[in-house]
Amino acid sequence: MDHIKFVILSIALSLAACGAPSAHDENGVSEVTEETSERPNSSDDNPFAPSQIDYPAADPLLGFIDARNMQSLSGEWNLIVDPMGVGDPGSLFGGFTQNRQPSTDMDLIEYNYETSPTVRVPGDFNTQDERLFFYQGRVWYFTTFEATPADNTRLHLWFGGANFKTTVFLNGKGIGEHDGGYVPFSFDITDTSVSGTNTLIVRVDNRLTEGSVPTTRTDWWPYGGLVRDVALVETPAGFIRNAKIALKDRDAGLIEAIVETANIQAGEEVALSLPELSIRETAQTDANGQATFAFNAEPDLWSPASPQLYDVTFSAGEDRISDRVGFRTIETRGQELLLNGTPLKLKGISTHEEAIARDGVAYSETDVRGLLAEAKALNANFVRAAHYPYSRHMAKAADEMGLLLWEEIPVYWNIDWDNDATLASARNLMDRLVRRDWNRASVIVWSVANETPHSEARLAFLNQLVSDVRAMDETRLVSAALFGNPRDELREVALYIAARGLARSDTPESARAVFSAIVAQAGDHAPQPDDLLTLTITDPLGEILDVVGYNEYFGWYYSALFAQQMGVGEDVLRPIMLDLMANIRISASVDKPLIISEFGAGAKHGHPGSGVWSEAYQAQVYEAQIEMLRNSPQVQGMTPWILKDFRAMLRTLPGVQNYRNRKGLIDENGNRKQAFDVLQEFYSEEW
Ligand code: GCB
Predict the structure, then answer these.
(1) Which of 353, 411, 643, 661 is the pocket-test mutation for ligand 1 (most atoms within 8 Å of CB)?
(2) Which of 94, 171, 248, 388 lies 20 to 30 A from 628 at CA?
(3) Cα 640 to chain center, whole Å?
(4) 2-233, what's its fold?
(5) How far apart are CA 550 and CA 595, in angstroms?
(6) What's the pTM?
(7) CATH T-level assignment (fold) for domain 333-485+536-564+586-683
(8) What digits encode the pLDDT tens for the residues 429-464?
């Protein structure tokens, strides 16, 4: 009996999975093609398992989006939440890849896009429906659009970024897939779109895996869905895919540019103009469709104090794209950072891509400008956009507002270093980020990783990313945020804590006994209470970076850690540590600039007292950190953690955290904490 049921079901499933055309396709799209050209293949052995289908990959990055003939698809899209994957092609109900509607009351269709609730695109789905707050799984988006393709044009469906795996079905056909969040991708839909109304269905799966980038555990919210703009982009049949322009030699005023075309033959003329600089240059495409330019000009250089931008236009065949770009140089000289040849200290702040006073992804230009306005209010000149690529609005706004930027990909904590697919995914993210933002003067640092535990496999993985970046872009610095190994690098700190602790009159007897034992054990090596302690970062990754980033949590985690390891109370240890920090110097074993890419402490706005979670304690940690870092000669910049409290599933403490990381200088309602003032004051001074 069961066997017969299975056979019937199998037949039904394979019909459904083949996308057997429905008589009721809406919107006049009568000939719904097969769902993909690849046949689902699993129903023979297991009728309940969805098919494994390989969809076409996204096209290489399409740059200069804002200069294109673009039709925004922003707005309300219908959403089906599908935790069990029943909408997957070949699955139980045959897939949600078409907008099927019953035409008689005898038609059994167990989903309906048109009567499903809507969500705003762009935007994460988690904060638009409280039932989806913790949701990690598949969702299906549905919308329609009108297309009227002109002759000799190509139509592209462009996504500014979607978290994390996106599969696109256009008029019933699976046209492509992109695995990897945060970065832009597009598909050429010239041949799969129709003149008139088109049905667009997008499956987005925001589950992370051990092999994904990032991996399953992150100290930020893995917001899901169509988190960035979606648009139709029309280009001429032969078009400019992307272009890069940069100041190569400041003294000589040498500017170089490279233009990448598609469907344009070798020997075609490509033009570049910078009208405000009276520049008009031409070059020919080579066999790869690329044209290169090198010419001299005297632009006013871009800097935070004077964020000068110029109009630039590239044209080839029928295509013409333009942008506003700045010219500057960034380089290192020993342990110094030089912007336009002048030493520079980076007064920075770290951020997540969450709007001020609103939960969820900061998806709009207004959101981003709000975030950067708070960084400006701190007197910062630098922002670390941690830990993944933000929308394109970020670097554009930074260019215009005069803020330097560190951009990063989510190679975070422990990635599957030995997995080729993981490396491919990280390389794809880096590639798309660099190619999108390589004309943004504000971006001075590409960061390949954050707090990755040492191993040979990790070094090989990151080495590949570093060389990829250098091959794409020589006009910026490569960095990574490293972290201390408490057992090795911080071992000596315990000895200094003990010496300091013994010198304080308020140290209780029990702690005194512990400290005496530690000091006695050190014998002749025991430090004097006021001795300076130099902590040296020895991570071998430093050898291949231009700038060493270092995350440290003196005054916060480290105090808890040492208290625990030494067997003394945190109430005793925390004040000793704050004291000691004035005598600590941080350095790196390589002769390169050092940026403290994180430090911080948690505080709930308005939390009373002076213990952990109080604004007062957070402010004390900032004071001690500033004292320590301003006196560490190798430190050329800092980006404390973090501008605003942010959503994090790791942070469960009721009443205090409620699923927010509380290390912000501003809370979720936009209230500034005391530490904001401490940092603002420091950044208003000469450093
Ligand atoms: C770190 C991580 C960051 C965390 C932060 C914290 O070192 O890089 O993602 O949010 O510490 O608050 O613990």
Answers:
(1) 661
(2) 388
(3) 17
(4) Jelly Rolls (2.60.120)
(5) 6
(6) 0.93
(7) TIM Barrel (3.20.20)
(8) 999 999 999 999 999 999 999 999 999 999 999 999
